[in-house]
């Protein structure tokens, strides 16, 4: 940092500023040099005396700044001291966490630990989704006209009651390597992303809209499973769905659990104020939803790869099952040592 120049003023003020600088500039130069060294090579290469001297030099510079401002000394000197003190404050008291440490803390501690705190809500979200699947299947099996009620033409993308076995099978096969994702695949990813966001966002309304969103999503899945099964393609469709669906549905269930958690803390804040309970719930679920966004991205990649390059039913199921096992093993086990250490 360049040294300050004395601003041309009245001779008395100029003399006073000159003497003030001469008396104290040794500490300013030492602080500036210490900051340059620390920013270049970090504090790891500094001696104990250098580390201990850094806050002392900072307080000396702050004292100089305070005095210079109180007696209205040279403006250039004050500006220099302000910049020097701000730089020292940020380095001494500001966060020094590296980006890789932030990522490590999130994936190895914050995300899996936060999800484990939602265990009750996760089971509820899973049960509600499974109920929706069962309702969708049973109603369509009882009366096929229910399918058109549950699945709009835009959602079905040709997977309707009038589709032949060949037409339905073609929607599950591979695509040309140069062909982009089908409109249905794009719609499916967009739809499930919207469902995840909606299931989380409406949780503040006592969790009831979250329940309805999960039930509706389950019914849609159940109805489509019924359609393919009725054409003898149930296993093929389940395999096509599994390759990305285990990741995608896990993300939706987790998002639903977040919505239920916010609704529960709103209705039952416990010994905390409702405002504080909602604030804590928001921090917890916000951390979880960052991970949900990542899961939906992974699901989208699996959908693209699975549809275009992997056509064997067994391979699709194997990939889906492996992804399911990986996700929930990660959520169950990762970060437990840190939890035990923290009591």
| Total helical elements | 14
**Coarse shape:** elongated
Would you tell me the overall average pLDDT?
82
- Using only CA atoms, what is the Rg? 31 Å
Distance between the termini: 47 Å
The beta-strand count equals: 0
What is the H-and-E element order?
A: HHHHHHHHHHHHHH
Structural class: mainly alpha
Poorly predicted residue ranges:
177-181
Main sheet: strands, sense, barrel: none
Total individual domains: 2
Beta percentage is: under 5%
Provide a short characterization of the protein structure:
The protein is an all-alpha fold and 343 residues long. The protein is built from 14 helices and no strands.
Q: Can you lay out the helices and strands and say which pair or pack?
A:
Blueprint: H1 11-41, H2 48-70, H3 75-93, H4 99-116, H5 119-142, H6 146-150, H7 153-156, H8 165-170, H9 183-201, H10 208-230, H11 234-267, H12 274-308, H13 313-333, H14 336-341
Helix pairs in contact: 1-2, 1-3, 2-3, 4-12, 4-13, 5-10, 5-11, 9-10, 9-11, 9-12, 10-11, 11-12, 11-13
Structural features, described:
The protein has 343 residues and is an all-alpha fold. The protein folds into two domains: 83 residues; 240 residues, no CATH class. Helix 1 packs parallel to helix 3 and helix 10 runs antiparallel to helix 11.
